[in-house]
Amino acid sequence: MARYVDPVDGSEYPLGVPRWRSDAGRPLMVTPQPGISRDDVETGDRSLWRYRACLPVPIADPISLGEGRTPLVERPWGRARPLFKLEWFSPTGSFKDRGSSVMLSYLRQHGVTSVLEDSSGNGGSSIAGYGAAGGLEVRIFVPARTSPAKIAQVEAYGARVHPVEGPREESQAEAIRWSDRAFYAGHNWQALFLEGVKTLAYELWEDLGFRAPDNVVVPVGAGSGLLGCHLGFRELVAAGQIPRAPRLFAAQPLNCSPVDAAFTTGSADREVRPTVAEGTAIRAPLRLREVLAALRDTGGATVAVPEREIVDALRGLCARGLFVEPTSATAAAAVTRLLDEGRIAPGETTVVMLGGSGLKAAGAVRDLLVGGA
In 3D, which of 371, 354, 301, 320 has the Cα closest to residue 94? Predict the structure, then answer.
């Protein structure tokens, strides 16, 4: 039977009681799951819930807006033709909808009616949107510098917004201080959020004719996208559906790259400066230990991208009809570096995750590309 587990000390807790941290105050995971086969895919469902058999708990009444089943398109990129996973086609405009749908469905099923979240944008708008769809009361704590378009989206869904001055971590701290008033559904803490994101791996497997790609490049801030991919592909290996997981690559802006620093030097202590990739501007990732383990387990690596290369990649994506926020462009810029350095080959099947819509940061995109920054 699936249970919550603290990956540091191995302590376990029942999934029948929602919780967001262990007794030691650490974020939880779910005990390893066996995975599913292609026969378990509910092909009549055009959402991530076609993979419901891979979830650790049955959900009788999902909160769904049709999330998942996003396009996977091939485009020329340098000497290669990678596959771009267009996660911005999700209902609220980002891949976070996968986690929000599963997490909030689980919480509502267990009697939770009011939730708190902290987010630099996409996570907050996703939880606000799915909270509205599920009839939940939602409060979102955001860094005061968050893009106005993202805040407007949160407010449009009817959620309460609490701007917090200071770095990204301050909004998390403030939300936790409020956690005695409502359930803290922080997407970086809640294990069921990762269980939703892992459907991305199952979807890529199905997209590719029930094969795994050779490489997956993911923009990484807190790491939920990369960790979700690792969980899903690890389950597919356990189920005998693929021989091995793809190599996972974490793309970060050099200006805020603690994962790259920790992976390459053993210490996450690196100077943090402003970056156009606001969605990955997290100086102390909560699940750094697990992110590093996922990279090493798959034979992957990290890429730290200078600001100019992020802007160049953003321009290149838009020129190919792919209108993304700057955070997503970090992954495309990382592919250029990986190809140039020979770490991935042009003939390999490489998936690039584009997690958020350019409409989320339209002003910033305009200033970067049209304003000549």
Answer: 354
Where b means 16+ CB within 10 Å and e means fewer, 191-218 reads: bbbbbbbbbbbbbbbbbeeeebbebbbb
Give the span between the Cα atoms of 43 and 142, in whole angstroms.
38
- Closest to 173 in 3D by CA, of 116, 107, 103, 255: 116
Interval 136-183: pLDDT, tens: 999 999 988 877 877 899 999 999 999 999 887 889 999 999 999 999
- Its pTM surpasses 0.85: yes
Instruction: Report how far apart, in Å, the C-alpha atoms of 250 and of each of 128, 271, 279, 332 are.
Output: 27, 18, 14, 11
Strand 137-143 and strand 114-118: the pairing is parallel
| Parallel/antiparallel/unpaired status of strands 29-30 and 12-14 | unpaired
Helix, strand or coil, per DSSP, at residue 162? strand
Q: How many residues does the chain have?
A: 373
Distance CA 97, CA 13 (A): 26
Place of tokens 């050779």: 214
Q: Which residues pair with 350 in a beta bridge?
A: 215
**DSSP string for 153-186:** HHHHTT-EEEEE-SSHHHHHHHHHHTTTTSEE--
Whether residue 121 contacts residue 145, with contact meaning beta carbons closer than 8 Å, is answered with no
Cβ proximity of 262 and 296 under 8 Å: no
* Separation of alpha carbons 335 and 316, rounded Å: 12
- E strand map for the chain: 3-5, 12-14, 29-30, 72-74, 83-86, 114-118, 137-143, 160-164, 183-184, 215-219, 247-253, 301-305, 350-354
Neighbours of 174 (CB within 10 A): 18
The answer to whether the CB of 59 falls within 8 A of the CB of 52 is yes
Distance CA(6)–CA(8), nearest Å, equals 5
Q: Which tens digits make up the pLDDT trace of 56-109?
A: 999 999 999 999 999 999 999 999 999 999 999 999 999 999 999 999 999 999
DSSP code at position 29: E
Nearest to 75 by CA among 244, 246, 319, 280: 319
